[in-house]
Amino acid sequence: MAFESGSISCRLYYLQGRMPEDAVRRFAAHAAPPLETLGAEPLSGWVTGRHLLDRRIEEDTAFVAGYLRLTLMTAQRKVPEALLRAECRMEELAALEAEGGAFLKRERRAEIRKQVYDRLLPTMPPTLKGIPLVYDRQSETVYAGALSDKQSDALTLAFKQAVGATLIPATPAAVALKRRRVNARDLAPCSFSPEFDDELASDSLGQDFLTWLWFYAETRGGLIRTDRGEFGVLIEGPLQLVLEADGAYETILRKGTPLVSAEAKTALLSGKKLKSARLTLARGEEPWSARLDADEFLLRGLKLPPDQATDPVSRFQERMLRLDTFREALWQCYDLFLGERADGAVWKDVLREARAWVAKRVAKK
Q: Could you tell me the pTM of the whole model?
């Protein structure tokens, strides 16, 4: 999940409002409290990207190669469940012996559990977690390792409290509105299957896009020209196809050759659309590959082309530039899709071709 090395898993955000000039000072004012102040309740706040205990948020520690790099840190004490059960059982056995009963009532056991928990909690070492964040001033994009809704909500709230700007998740609907002025609510549901009615189909714009991208990669040569160069597009498994209707809601295809499997064709014919898959964008000898969640545009396990830098700052800068290249290439793929999706006459022809593609798919067992 880290941005400094390895693969990257992140959610993208737009800023609603401007990042203030004194953003570093404001984040510093909301820095995480000292770990020594941690009690029974969790504490949270901002730290730098250097490590989870670095509360010194200043210009030289908050910026790396021109990017704002921070982490929303949370610290709390937890009693391991196995330890809690063992300690509780010891106390219960002692109580039974002292009180001379055959068993303990539920209320007495709950009382013992609370007493044991309160006794053990202050002795437990702190557990630290962090949501890494990078702000790119050039594209005004925020990348953050907030993959769950709970993490995203916590990050959005803390960001708003610190600098006054709101983070808007770059969902398919938000990106469509910002880049192409396309309102997802104005688009009627559509089916890629020749055997499934449009009005019964999912209205997920992200699923439409990922299914269209699969169709595009297999029928139109799989090349897309962008401002960052020409990219080859490849969809790979595992595949997750879904449809909220009667019957099996979800089909997950792993191993083997899922793209040309009989199960993939059956899923498409039944009206299912692609919700997640591994997407590879390749420019010459440079491949970018990530598992894309179509409903929220989450990137999981994004592998970047190998970097050439040797020092940490240059390596971080090179990785962020490559991440930005992938983001912009993905958005321009999405632009191409939106240009067809929002034009009724064009989309009618696209669906006719896509349904033929589904009907004639090779289906290997």
A: 0.91
The reported pLDDT for the residue numbered 58 is: 97
Domain ranges of the chain: 8-77+125-169, 81-122, 180-359
Residues 259, 303: contact at Cβ < 8 Å?
no
Sequence-distant (6+) residues with CB within 8 A of 149 are none
Burial of 192 (0-12, 13-18, 19+ CB in 10 A): buried
At residue 325's C-alpha, the angle toward residues 139 and 281, to 5°, is: 145
For the chain (length 365 residues), average pLDDT per consecutive 10? Answer: 89 94 97 94 96 96 97 96 96 90 89 95 95 95 96 97 96 97 95 92 95 95 92 94 78 84 91 96 96 97 90 94 97 97 96 95 69
Q: How far apart are CA 204 and CA 341, in angstroms?
A: 12
What pLDDT score does 363 carry?
66
Look at residue 2 in the predicted model and tell me its pLDDT. Answer: 80
> Which residues touch 2 (CB under 8 Å, ≥6 apart)?
8, 132, 145
Helix axes 205-219, 344-359, angle to 10 degrees: 60
